[in-house]
Amino acid sequence: MNKENTPLKKTPNDHSIMDTIKDRWSPRVFADIPVSQTDLQSLFEAGRWAASSNNFQPWNIVWGVKGSKSYERIMNHLVEFNQSWAVNAPVLMLGVINTKTPDGKDNYHALHDLGQFTANMALQAHSMGIAIHQMAGVDFEAAKKEFEFPEEYHVATAIAVGYYGGDKNNLNEDLQGAETSPRVRKKQDEFIFNGNFVKRESL
């Protein structure tokens, strides 16, 4: 299984970007193919080499494969909407940050650094024909308690992982259209400023 088998969505990019970025997307259904330990270690290794402020590397990943206790423990803390489709994923993860620096100060960049870890992981995954879908819908405090993280840690995101190519008919009908609809992003002039910030009206 590799990226040649990845179902592509229309990405109406306005400027040239590399295919790994253009073609990556976040499905809610996945092929019925296990993600091996070797594959997961490649994803984690890609994340490991992400940049971080002062090289503090404040990220932590909890993971479980479908059928395992860790998977069910993660699933139990997703909101109901995410549970409805994440059950399709062969692997579930939690992205957790240490909100303190090694000397105990607030690390205001930790969430940004976890984002870089996850972006690296997503691009590595896409190159292997694997998709990841990040979720904000998690009971953060309950998940932190479940996995026994100390107070200074924060469960920032959940992540579903699996190979592209799932059958959209395995989703609720109201979610099926999102699997084939074109990708949408704001235009650059809505968020890029060569100087002072100027408020833009939402489209």
TrEMBL record:
GO terms for molecular function: oxidoreductase activity. Signal peptide: none annotated. Gene3D superfamilies: NADH Oxidase (3.40.109.10). Transmembrane segments: none annotated. Residues 21-163 form the Nitroreductase domain. This is Nitroreductase. SUPFAM superfamilies: FMN-dependent nitroreductase-like (SSF55469). It comes from Nonlabens arenilitoris. Pfam families: Nitroreductase. Belongs to the nitroreductase family. Keywords: Oxidoreductase.
